[in-house]
Design brief:
4 helices, OB fold (Dihydrolipoamide Acetyltransferase, E2P), about 120 residues, single chain, about 20% helix, alpha+beta, three-stranded antiparallel β-sheet, six-stranded antiparallel β-sheet
């Protein structure tokens, strides 16, 4: 699965959508979803929580392991994807669409996120 051009990517394998009124969606990449295996549980930050770029804000549990979820940006969580909480397999089946994890109102523009091409090169894809 190729990385959508309109998204930006972190080296921790999260993606960030373009900001709409200062709010961006966050998810994990298909590369990360493939590496995790079948995701069976997600723990997401709560609405109203403040997340910090590069710091953990949740967890993803798969049949293989438990992995930390990192925020690619600093800001306030405005929404969480209840569909993913109810059906964690969406992270694997639709990582860039229905498998988004949370939305965040950013307080600063991230400077260290990668373009789709840079992320593909970073992951060796």
């Amino acid at each position: 699965m190729s990385n959508p051009q309109q998204l930006r990517y972190s080296k921790e394998h999260e993606w960030l959508s373009a900001s709409e009124a200062g709010v961006s969606a966050v998810g994990i990449t298909s590369h990360a979803a493939d590496a995790l295996g079948d995701v069976v549980f997600v723990q997401l930050p709560e609405v109203g929580a403040v997340v910090t770029a590069g710091e953990t804000c949740g967890e993803l549990e798969s049949t293989k392991s438990v992995s930390d979820l990192y925020s690619p940006v600093t800001g306030e969580v405005t929404d969480v994807n209840q569909d993913v909480v109810d059906d964690p397999s969406l992270v694997n089946s639709a990582p860039f669409e229905g498998g988004w994890l949370f939305k965040v109102k950013t307080t600063e523009e991230p400077s260290d996120l990668l373009s789709a091409e840079e992320y593909t090169a970073f992951t060796g894809g």
